[in-house]
Amino acid sequence: MFIPQIYTGMKKLLLFLLTLLTVHASATVITVSNNPDSPAEYDDLQTALNNIDPGDTIILSGSPTSYGNVTANRTLVLLGPGWNPQSGYKAQLGTLTINGASHNSVIRGIQIRSLTSGGSYDNVVITDCYFDYVYTDITLSDHNNWQIYGNRFEGDISLNADSDNTLIANNVFSKNSTRGTVQYANNSTLFLNNVIIDPYTSGLFSNCSGMFLANNIFIMTHSTKYSNPNNGCTGCSFNNNITYSTYSIDIPDIPGQSDFGGNNWNDANPRFVNFPNDATKFSSNHDYHLAGDSPGKASGTDGTDTGIYGRGYEFNIYGHTDLPRIYLMNIENPVVLVDSSLNIVVKSTTTK
Predict the structure, then answer these.
(1) What is the pTM of this model?
(2) How high is the pLDDT of residue 285?
(3) Distance between CA atoms of 141 and 67, rounded to whole angstroms?
(4) 68: phi > 0 → left, psi -120 to 50 → alpha, else beta; which?
(5) Is residue 182 part of a domain?
(6) pLDDT band at 15 (very low <50, low <70, confident <90, very high)
(7) For position 264, which CATH number holds?
(8) Who contacts 172 (Cβ-Cβ below 8 Å, separation ≥6)?
């Protein structure tokens, strides 16, 4: 499937858009903004979604107003400015429902309340998004080959036991509920290089069987109790993970009796560059890179770091995407005479 590559600068943005058009021969690029200060082709996202052709790209402008609950019924690329841009607004959705023939879609750089799929849709990429619902952030039906990486979650991901080849990698789970981080994963699910910050006392997983977990960092921040990393994951393989309690509470070792694996660091401080010992949640003010004396430094299964900066992935602490963010676009002369110029002022900033 096609996954957008990394570009910065306006010239490279144009190259990126041309690449999309080349890959999807009939695709077009559509702009949507409900911010009156930044007009676009559409001011309503659902209307744009109803009118696109399969494979089209929608660039969603940042706005102080949510775009609400929407449903996508076709293959698309949906791009926002990132979930915590340092200038301009973020793009916010309520519930995003993926229905119809939505195979091979890409959702990127948006703050989303929750995402749900109403059927079997394969080869979908979810990246650089922030899911802010405290319960189930993503609910999937029977699906295959989904990639969920580089995101921030407040809740959990609920898969389907019959779904295959799900990659959940380089995400931050800053839990706001007692539910498991992942539910109903099977032996084709890969859970790699995630950071889980858990102030609660439940199991970290629920109804998972045979999942492969590697290079993750589990941080327990409850002052008197812990979440058991083994609970809710039967026959799972734990390799090169780190567990740690910021309050020096004994945590059961991984793997547990019903699981297997090796080379894990149990109850070991991962030594982030900046993570206060009294912190209980994710913050963009923290630095989740590993210090030089961290046990996870270059100690992943692939020889890179454990945690969100492993696998050669550069996690962006603000959720910025790779595209320049246009935060102002004004047409100075909406009435144009013959042989005259249309003057458009565009202001943007690079994101990485």
Answers:
(1) 0.85
(2) 92
(3) 24
(4) left
(5) yes
(6) very low
(7) 2.160.20
(8) 151, 152, 153, 194, 195, 197, 282, 288, 308, 315
- Percentage of the chain exceeding pLDDT 90: 57
348 touches 318 (CB < 8 A): no
Minimal CA–CA distance to 244: which of 214, 272, 266? 266
Domains in the chain, number: 1
For residue 63, is it within any domain? yes
pLDDT tens readout for residues 133-185: 877 888 888 889 999 999 999 888 999 888 899 999 999 998 766 677 899 99
- Burial (CB < 10 A; 0-12, 13-18, 19+), residue 283, is middle
Residue that the structure tokens 């290079």 belong to: 215
| Residue 270, preceding peptide bond in cis (omega within 30° of 0) | no
In this prediction, residue 20 has a pLDDT band, given cuts at 50, 70 and 90, of very low
As given in the structure block, the two tokens for residue 104 are: 């091979």
Alpha-carbon distance 115 to 72, whole Å?
11
Does residue 174 sit within a domain?
yes
Contacts of 91 by beta carbon, 8 Å cutoff, 6+ apart: 60, 61, 62, 63, 67, 80, 81, 109, 110, 111
- Give yes or no for a contact between 89 and 70, defined as CB atoms under 8 angstroms apart: no
Q: Is residue 2 part of a domain?
A: no
Residue 195 is part of which domain span? Answer: 10-349
Which amino acid is present at 333?
Answer: N
